């Protein structure tokens, strides 16, 4: 067995060479003959009626090909943008989805809402001409806070959503939870906000739409995490083109973090504008547009109560959450604060009674949808902050309070749908405690105090649901799609292999990791295996990459297809070598009869399959198999993170001194890549905890519209991370994988805030914990 | 419109360019050297860093015509033929990149950081590397492996 490339090997990435030499091919690098460029005319107002649009000056400008508006777009039958997950309110009524046209026709609802598009010979001409489009707006009052949007008399964002309420949903047993809390020996209550974030992949969104009139065919190059879903939605709902007349290519994509799941107005408009103008239309977002128009993440306000009995065992958790959805319902928005959030409120703890109520609310802000973690960071932040706060109130060690309440018997059914299959929460907690040298904390704290600094330590024991998701299960919860994955294994006549996958890599290293499982299975050099993804003309279908699903779901599909290939290879070899199939083994580039010297080369089996001169009777020629894999359950990555900070009481500045992670991801294919995922996730979590926040003014004007105003984590804001694993193998997929893409972003924010609140002696601190916020909290605590 | 003559990656190039053309646009659109990326519009992210006469410059903040007669090296010109530059190799060795978008600018900035330290006879600490790269934003890696990569290359350059 080729141990240095198989499962568990730290194989350097195959895809790196093109990126480190500047030869990556991203959407904005695509340029076709006679390329035209689009620029969007966007609303500067958070809320306004569009009275008229005068395009005459723009149309007259040199180099302008056309200026198109929303009435033309809807007139051509382009459909409204939809949310694909139906949530039902607790009174049985359906969610209130307001209409969202790719180009607004009569009303704009957030700063950046597009009303027209200019197509011109160059990007600069298009941008200048967009400034010449005169839009007469009647400005309406706007609202940016979800809590305020529910107030009587607040501006109404959509006529069909009275009080701006999209749904009022609940999960769990309210009466039983209330009763448990009423009898509790101790109740801790906490109000929390989960700050609004801009995902900020470094590559901004981009689209190149090419309409071929001769074939009535469209091609779209786009920055997508799931090109097949994009094609499906563009066809089935937006009526841009039928699927067989639309090819979607997501080439190299520069990060996504959820924000590139959705099909946005710009891609729809570019496709349609390409047909209207007869030109290929290209649009690349600038960073300011990205802040205005990419779906944001988080933005929850919650009140939570947790009750304990006299033995410090949790008896109940009650949560009331208000989720800001922005001006329109984005593709998966409705699922985020419900089935991806409230279902994880049990955390790692055995809690008999949980109730959560969620109100989803329209505001005059950009739509909010899944961002790395999607609902699970919000749940983890709530559970891990309230348990740490409770430990302080109960005057018990926060690690001990966790131990007292850990789930230790699996499978474990929580009161909020999820059935945890396997885990070892103690193992990760104890490993993290050891690796973080918690034993030495008191000494370090004393040393900090001597230097005039406050030192604090915070825990976070997170759990998440990944490997999204069993199709029938999500279907029963309202999902409009199934969440399986597909794969095709093509063995060429010379024995090299192409793996076609519906997963999409935008930084996750699939070209390496996926090749590793194939190299191991067929004992072949990794160079002989290539991974094909991101093109609907090559890969038949796929659900794409999000929710840490490419390992647990995408690679499982590859395994299933390899099972079929292996069976056929063994049949061919048994026939040619005149042996029993059961005696055939594949190793060292050969297909052998075990215990004999009879063998044929792997490539000879491939060639035999295609020459078809000597195949078993009734066997079809060729060596190509496919599989669709539908997971049996979610997977449940879990772990403990420990953060240690030093706070300067004079300035409120926080320095993260050490950050330790111990994760259970199940089977790990490439530890180097998995650790990289954890590093990146932690950095985003620290960003949320210390630096990042999208700010709108009260009326919906965007304040943080560039990197001058929105604080991205930089190298000198962050520490090196100490990353460890203590794994239990997932029983529900063939490789035992749980997924690792989101854990860092889920687990880290509460660890950071728990550390700071420990240092400053005040539990009342919101994210981001800027120096000003920390300094104010210190003053409030009288320190 | 100005006639611009420049040496790019060791080759002389000559083009008529509008005066408002940024160096990043000139490289990407006129020369089709698309390894230089643009990740923001406020010169904050550093994805567009190239070398002008051997010094790191954010190419989104320089007018192309202001560099008449100068020498520019982009990520495409960093490797010596098929031989990767030690910084490129170090990024691969240490998993210093994920999506790859910030990588060209990150590598070009890191080469400059190390070269300047060497010229001054200084050894770069982890803090020096972190501080030296604060003009370059990476959203994927959390910087941990980038810092390791730069430290490795610094010992090899």
Descriptive labels:
heterodimer; A: 783 residues; Aldehyde Oxidoreductase, domain 4; seven-stranded mixed β-sheet; five-stranded mixed β-sheet; 20 helices; 28 strands; B: 157 residues; alpha+beta; Ubiquitin-like (UB roll); DNA polymerase, domain 1; 2 domains; 5 helices; globular
Describe the structure in your own words:
The complex is a heterodimer of chains A (783) and B (157). Chain A has 783 residues and is an alpha+beta fold. Chain A folds into three domains: 16-22 and 484-629, Aldehyde Oxidoreductase, domain 4 (2-Layer Sandwich), CATH 3.30.365; 31-140 and 203-254 and 260-293, Aldehyde Oxidoreductase, domain 3 (Alpha-Beta Complex), CATH 3.90.1170.50; 300-469 and 633-780, Aldehyde oxidase/xanthine dehydrogenase, molybdopterin binding domain (Aldehyde Oxidoreductase, domain 4, 2-Layer Sandwich), CATH 3.30.365. In chain A, 29% of the residues lie in helices and 23% in strands. Chain A has a seven-stranded mixed β-sheet with strand order 3-5-1-12-9-10-11. In chain A, helix 15 packs parallel to helix 16 (550-577) and helix 18 crosses helix 19. The model of chain A has no long low-confidence stretch (mean pLDDT 97). With 157 residues, chain B is an alpha+beta fold. Chain B has a five-stranded mixed β-sheet with strand order 2-1-5-3-4, sandwiched between helices. In chain B, helix 2 (86-93) packs antiparallel against helix 5 (144-156). Chains A and B meet through helix 1 and helix 18 of A and helix 2, helix 3, helix 4 and helix 5 of B.
In short:
The complex is a heterodimer of chains A (about 775) and B (about 160). Chain A is of the alpha+beta class. In chain A, about 30% of the residues lie in helices and about 25% in strands.
